[in-house]
Amino acid sequence: MNKKAYLQISFGWLFAIIVGIFILFLAILGVSKVIKLGEIEQSAKTGKEIGILTNPLETGFESAKVTSFGFSAETRIYNKCDNSGIFGKQGIQVSQKSFNKWTKTYEGISFENKYIFSERYAEGKVFYLFSKPFEFPFKVADLIYLIPSSEEYCFYNAPEEVEEEISGLKQENLKTEDCSADSIKICFDRTGCDIDVNYNEKSVEKNRKLVYFEGDALMYAAIFSDAGIYECQLRRLMQRTEQLCKLYQDKENFVNCGSNLYVELIALAESAGKLKNSKELYLAGNIAEELQEKNDANQECKLW
Question: Are 157 and 257 contacting, i.e. CB atoms less than 8 angstroms apart?
Fold first, then answer.
């Protein structure tokens, strides 16, 4: 009888323990879901805030503008580029360090009218946003360069106009002199640096990958971004160029003042629309240059 009572008591305790474990499991599961939802909400909120911060950089016609923003925790900003559809999409995903671990990234925020150039992800607490308008030959969009404050870029032997622009930005991690030993070195018209820029051939070599540019706005884009991001964003810019060409064709028909740019606009639209990679950019670049010359020559009837 004593043994039977002992077994009954043991079973009661065992049942209580099992129920307690189950309740604890449900509680942990519930907390995990709340934390997960919080991470998703925070990621989306931060992505929206970054999008809002880029808005002032897209207004006006200044040569270049700079702003900065920061976080209390170590943060990774993932650059997502998608060129499907008419204009493609600029995506942003955010991951932050919590308890010495990176939070999972979830579906981020996307924009059709933004073009951010950076590495696959930028990591730090403070970030700089530097923007410059891309004209081809009319203004296509403002290009935004996302750079962690912890990364220092040093420009060596840069053309005078580039050196003046970098100095004029007064951005602490972009320098033309007094560079630190561990800075990312950018050399113009010579090889052997972290990033080699051939200003005459309009090419940038970085991490053993070669991309091509037209104009300083795309040159900076190639310097500050991953090659894959650069190529994707370039195709998006050409998609936008194609649509803008069609609008200018309509404008020329509407104003009817003999600007005679219709044929070149068609040619640029076709070249931009068919562009597969930056190596083919010079074809559209030649047409854009010819368009600009003709537009400038017609003082009484400029389309842009």
Answer: no
pLDDT digits (tens, 9 = 90+) for 111-141: 999 999 999 999 999 999 989 999 999 999 9
Spatial separation of the C-alpha atoms in residues 284 and 292, rounded to whole Å: 12
Task: Report the distance separating Cα 133 and Cα 152, nearest Å.
Answer: 23
Distant-in-sequence, close-in-space partners of 286: CB < 8 Å, separation ≥ 6 = none
What Rg, from alpha-carbon coordinates, does the chain have? 27
- Does residue 5 carry a pLDDT above 90? no
The count of residues in the chain is 304
Assign 257 a pLDDT band (cuts: 50, 70, 90): confident
Q: Look-up: residue for tokens 């990774």?
A: 76
Per-residue pLDDT, averaged over 246-269, amounts to 89
Q: How do residues 47-97 score in pLDDT, each as one tens digit?
A: 566 656 566 555 444 456 788 888 888 999 999 999 999 999 999 999 988
Q: Which structure tokens are listed for 68?
A: 């900065």
HEC profile of the chain = CHHHHHHHHHHHHHHHHHHHHHHHHHHHHHHHHHHHHHHHHHHHHHHHHHHHHHHHHHCCCCCCEEEEEEEEEEEEEEEEEECCCCCCEEEEEEEEEECCEECCCCCCEEECCCEEECCCEEEEEEEEEEEEEEECCCEEEEEEEEEECCCCEEEECCCHHHHHHHHHHCCCCEECCCCCCCCEEEEECCCCCCEEEECCCCEEEECCEEEECCCHHHHHHHHHCCHHHHHHHHHHHHHHHHHHHHHHHHHHHHHCCCCCCHHHHHHHHHHHHHCCCHHHHHHHHHHHHHHHHHHHHCCCCCCC
Structural tokens at position 279: 């190596």
